[in-house]
Amino acid sequence: MITPLHPLEIFLQPGDYYFGGRDTRIRTVLGSCVSMAFWHPQLLIGGMCHYMLPKRGSERRVGDRPVPDGRYADEAIALLMKKIDAVGAPYKEYQVKLFGGGNMFPERHKNRMPEIGIQNVQAARRLAKQHGFACVSEHLGDIGYRNVIFEVWSGDVWVKHSNVMSNIEHDPINRS
Length: 176
What we know:
Blueprint: E1 8-12, E2 17-20, E3 24-30, E4 34-40, E5 45-51, E6 61-62, E7 65-66, H1 73-87, E8 95-100, H2 116-130, E9 134-140, E10 145-151, E11 156-162, H3 164-170
Parallel strand pairs: 1-3, 8-9
Antiparallel strand pairs: 2-5, 3-10, 4-5, 4-8, 6-7, 10-11
Function: Probably deamidates glutamine residues to glutamate on methyl-accepting chemotaxis receptors (MCPs), playing an important role in chemotaxis.
Keywords: Chemotaxis, Hydrolase
EC number: 3.5.1.44
């Protein structure tokens, strides 16, 4: 694939999503949050979401209509699927890649309910399967955070994973 001369650079904050064409590069940084990248290899289109929690406790409404919020897995996927549906290609033609769900505070979660990263990973896998998307790659869990870059023109996703515990142990602090 040829890299665009001037790619459109999109940075996703928690709760954001984006769907676009082949000239797009989408970036985000993840801790316990999860991103799902969707790519259509024939049409060279794709998108990504960055959600924080597996689901919302109660629905937010404006009047009698619910207002979707990309901070929650099921709602983020619903928002992104509206963009995917507008294209008209079957879901099974998309490749899905999953990232994130890191444990940012491993010392705090011993012997408790599953940490939020694990819950977010479970939600991503469940939603991909539920909607018939083919999950072709993942980089999930573990301790730490990830920098994620998705190049829509090629479908490539680049991940830099940093272990927060190793950073703490090896970064010297000068005290004078």
